[in-house]
């Protein structure tokens, strides 16, 4: 999916449903402006009452909760982080664009270089580390690098909104000390506010 300039005026995003509806409108076409999507997500000021029905937590881990599958063009989901530390594995995004907006709390993002497949057992290089705060938006794709997310607070939960264009159901995970990789399946803890049958989230 191409990401080209979009000159549309930014709509008013007053509620979570406004954001969901406008994302559907954007993805009726195939040309997407990354900056426009990022600004659209930034324009929504989080109100927990509006997205609470999608927020399902599991103790000592994080959950992926599907909000909208966008007619097959994208996945929009809430990731719910229990009290920390909760850490993802280092992973790629299967050639998808990945936007992440913090709805409450914060997470640390650590970006990594892709490991050199010609080198064996080499520690992965860190590119950058940042904190994504309340209402902040981050963006990554595979050309930028890999990343790991960490929710470090031992006393509070966090919720982030993730948009993947196009959707994917598997990705690669990486060992930080060696750069070795494995392919894993990505699963949903709930869909549209309803708990799914028990599965284990992988990335």
Automatic annotation (TrEMBL):
Pathway annotation from the record: Organosulfur biosynthesis; taurine biosynthesis; hypotaurine from L-cysteine: step 1/2
InterPro entries referenced in this protein's UniProt entry, alphabetically: CDO_1, RmlC-like_jellyroll, RmlC_Cupin_sf
Binding site for Fe cation: 91, 93, 147
One GO MF term attached to the UniProt entry: ferrous iron binding
UniProt keyword annotations, A-Z: Dioxygenase, Iron, Metal-binding, Oxidoreductase, Thioether bond
GO terms (BP aspect): L-cysteine catabolic process; taurine biosynthetic process
PANTHER family named among the record's database cross-references: CYSTEINE DIOXYGENASE, CYSTEINE DIOXYGENASE TYPE 1
Entry protein name: Cysteine dioxygenase
């Amino acid at each position: 999916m191409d990401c080209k300039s979009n000159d549309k005026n930014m709509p008013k995003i007053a509620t979570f449903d406004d954001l969901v509806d406008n994302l559907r409108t954007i993805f009726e076409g195939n040309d997407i402006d990354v900056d426009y999507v990022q600004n659209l997500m930034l324009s929504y000021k989080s109100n927990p009452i509006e997205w609470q029905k999608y927020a399902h937590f599991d103790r000592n881990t994080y959950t992926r909760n599907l909000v909208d599958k966008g007619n097959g063009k994208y996945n929009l989901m809430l990731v719910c982080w229990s009290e920390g530390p909760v850490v993802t594995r280092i992973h790629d995004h299967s050639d998808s664009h990945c936007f992440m907006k913090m709805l409450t709390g914060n997470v640390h993002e650590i970006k990594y270089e892709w490991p050199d497949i010609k080198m064996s057992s080499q520690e992965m290089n860190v590119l950058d580390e940042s904190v994504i705060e309340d209402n902040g938006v981050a963006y990554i794709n595979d050309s930028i690098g890999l990343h790991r997310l960490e929710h470090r607070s031992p006393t509070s939960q966090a919720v982030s909104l993730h948009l993947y264009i196009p959707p994917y159901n598997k990705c690669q995970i990486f060992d930080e000390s060696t750069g070795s990789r494995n392919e894993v399946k990505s699963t949903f803890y709930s869909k549209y506010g309803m708990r799914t049958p028990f599965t284990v989230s992988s990335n």
